[in-house]
């Protein structure tokens, strides 16, 4: 029987919607920790405006890169099937390098000119559903010969034209309507939208896992073991500090990197099974896709250095169906980012982000989506909730750490061998990772209902109908695509993309019903949601000290009268000389306070 633990279901970094975690203290004979330490436990080692030593920036920057690893590489691996690249490991590696490179650039832009909080940028699952819906249209279906690995010649002109033309058709844009939409969007709109992101990707997870269910189950078990059962078990590591000199420090490795550890161990086991020919070597045998030598030539063929550039797949094209379809995912991504901004501010010791900073942050994410479209990542960029959670573990809220992460991701994107390594992950291992990640995304969407009154028959009807419609309508349209015939080809394509995107259908019905069926703000969950955005952190920083633009830009803008009409320009605010005090002891393991609820990321999903 599982032991009881007062955690409110929000104590696990790997699968939680919040991001406040502390290490456990060293206690003797089960003694309780002195409550006088609680104030020290919550104190940051470095707040958002501090600059840690360069070596600490690099080490923590690497950790942030590894934390985002699962989400970043999952997106190009999913898109490879829609882009007819499932048998071209070399191009897959270049796609992975590109998304690393663009994510690093967008992270640097966000930290420097955007929200200016320590928040990392990367690919988003919210744009996968409309992208795959667009690529599944009859005119974009992959030729039959690309489905058989024995018939594919990856250097042939016809194969290159197939995937390059599809890459040019993936267009990602952004909208600045976040202020307007946020007035009408609540938990009953967000819950079905986010949940259907995970549910709509079940086919990709099942297809990859089905190549060898034994390997997939092993991957699932390992990720579950690390993230759930071993998350509170510290691993001793040698450490050095000025106060304690050389000593042993306990690090919660399983809690920080459960997905990476699970994939790496499964990958290693597949390599051993391949080396000793336990896995079949015949392509038509079950389990063949679990071998690690299927793309062994990719490592040798991939260049050491590759520099992604705009238009590398050809000139991007724009279609009405693509723009409208992707817009549904972009709006959902913007709402998710607003929740991440508030959570990140609380964890980094910063005051709540003002409207001009939020507008800048969303604008930079939109610019990042445009850069991603120009470079051809097949996806956009958004704030990464899992890295927001990592701030609570390290007690380092400095944005210079995220700057280091951005630089590291750019370097990883330039080294072609890095992307090539990731393409050699066996597909059953990827399938096991997908099953865990997409399941968590679906559950994370449902968790937003905690703010609404689910004893209300009104709310039950709205959520149930929205979820069911988001599953039924896309499934029917996929089976009968010829049913949509308006006589206008562009309109047919637009409707087909929208109606085959589960998150749009579910979110649309949730939005309409929640705003038209009578209900109080408390019943709808608006009151609880807004309360969760309120500042509950103790910080000594002024708003302008954190969110004003660097390099004297704010002073220049403040001297111009026209900037008052620009929603992204900050007002003139004098900086406070007071800084949040650095506490190097906060890097050590401590007991989290029991009487404080951790800050919550409203929509973000962490893994």
TrEMBL record:
TM segment ranges: 53-83, 95-113, 169-190, 210-230, 251-274, 313-331, 401-423, 429-448, 460-478, 493-513
Compartment annotation: Membrane
Membrane topology reported for the UniProt record: Multi-pass membrane protein
InterPro entries xrefs: NCS2 (IPR006043), Xan_ur_permease (IPR006042)
Any matching Pfam family: Xan_ur_permease
Single GO MF annotation: transmembrane transporter activity
Keywords for the protein's UniProt record, in alphabetical order: Membrane, Transmembrane, Transmembrane helix, Transport
Domain of life: Eukaryota
PROSITE patterns in alphabetical order: XANTH_URACIL_PERMASE
Gene Ontology cellular component terms for the protein in this record: plasma membrane
Family: Belongs to the nucleobase:cation symporter-2 (NCS2) (TC 2.A.40) family.
The name this protein goes by in its record: Solute carrier family 23 member 2
Biological source species: Collichthys lucidus
């Amino acid at each position: 029987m599982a032991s009881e633990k007062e955690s409110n279901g929000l104590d696990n970094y790997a699968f939680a919607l919040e991001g406040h975690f502390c290490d456990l203290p060293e206690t003797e004979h089960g003694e309780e920790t002195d409550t006088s330490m609680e104030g020290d436990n919550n104190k940051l080692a470095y707040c958002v405006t501090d600059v840690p030593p360069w070596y600490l920036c690099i080490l923590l920057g690497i950790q942030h890169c590894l934390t985002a690893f699962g989400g970043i590489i999952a997106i190009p691996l999913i898109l490879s099937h829609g882009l007819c690249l499932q048998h071209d490991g070399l191009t897959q590696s270049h796609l992975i390098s590109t998304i690393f490179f663009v994510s690093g650039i967008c992270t640097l832009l966000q930290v420097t000119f955007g929200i200016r909080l320590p928040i990392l940028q990367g690919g988003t699952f919210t744009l996968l559903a409309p992208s795959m819906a667009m690529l599944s249209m009859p005119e974009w279906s992959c030729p039959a010969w690309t489905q058989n690995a024995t018939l594919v010649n990856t250097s042939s002109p016809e194969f290159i034209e197939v995937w390059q033309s599809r890459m040019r058709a993936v267009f990602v844009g952004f909208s600045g309507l976040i202020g307007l939409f946020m007035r009408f969007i609540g938990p009953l709109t967000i819950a079905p939208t986010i949940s259907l992101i995970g549910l709509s990707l079940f086919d990709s997870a099942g297809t990859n896992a089905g190549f060898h269910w034994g390997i997939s189950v092993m991957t699932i078990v390992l990720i579950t073991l690390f993230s759930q059962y071993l998350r509170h078990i510290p691993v001793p590591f040698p450490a050095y500090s000025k106060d304690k000199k050389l000593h042993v420090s306990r690090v919660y490795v399983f809690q920080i990197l459960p997905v990476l550890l699970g994939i790496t161990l499964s990958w290693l086991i597949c390599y051993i099974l391949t080396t000793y020919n336990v896995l079949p070597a015949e392509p038509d045998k079950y389990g063949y896709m679990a071998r690690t030598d299927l793309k062994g030539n990719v490592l040798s063929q991939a260049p050491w250095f590759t520099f992604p550039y705009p238009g590398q797949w050809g000139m991007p094209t724009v279609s009405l169906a693509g723009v409208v379809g992707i817009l549904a995912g972009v709006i959902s991504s913007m709402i998710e980012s607003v929740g991440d901004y508030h959570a990140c501010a609380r964890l980094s010791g910063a005051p709540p982000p003002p409207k001009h900073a939020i507008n800048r942050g969303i604008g930079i994410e939109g610019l990042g989506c445009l850069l991603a479209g120009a470079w051809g990542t097949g996806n956009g960029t958004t704030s990464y909730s899992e890295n927001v959670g990592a701030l609570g573990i390290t007690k380092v809220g400095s944005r210079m750490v995220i700057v280091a992460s951005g630089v590291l991701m750019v370097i990883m994107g330039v080294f072609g061998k890095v992307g090539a390594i990731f393409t050699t992950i066996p597909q059953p291992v990827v399938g096991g990772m997908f099953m865990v990640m997409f399941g968590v995304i679906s559950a994370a969407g449902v968790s937003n209902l905690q703010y609404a009154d689910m004893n209300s028959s009104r709310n039950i009807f709205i959520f149930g109908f929205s979820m069911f419609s988001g599953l039924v309508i896309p499934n029917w349209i996929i089976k009968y695509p010829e049913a949509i015939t308006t006589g206008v080809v562009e309109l047919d394509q637009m409707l087909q993309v929208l109606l085959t995107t589960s998150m749009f259908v579910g979110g649309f019905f949730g939005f309409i019903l929640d705003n038209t069926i009578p209900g109080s703000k408390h019943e709808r969950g608006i009151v609880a949601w807004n309360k969760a955005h309120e500042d509950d952190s103790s910080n000594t920083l002024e708003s302008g000290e954190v969110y004003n633009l660097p390099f004297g830009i704010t002073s220049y803008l403040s001297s111009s009268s026209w900037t008052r009409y620009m929603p992204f320009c900050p007002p003139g605010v004098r900086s406070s000389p007071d800084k949040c005090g650095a506490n190097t002891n906060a890097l050590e393991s401590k007991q989290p306070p029991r009487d404080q609820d951790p800050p919550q990321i409203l929509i973000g999903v962490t893994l």
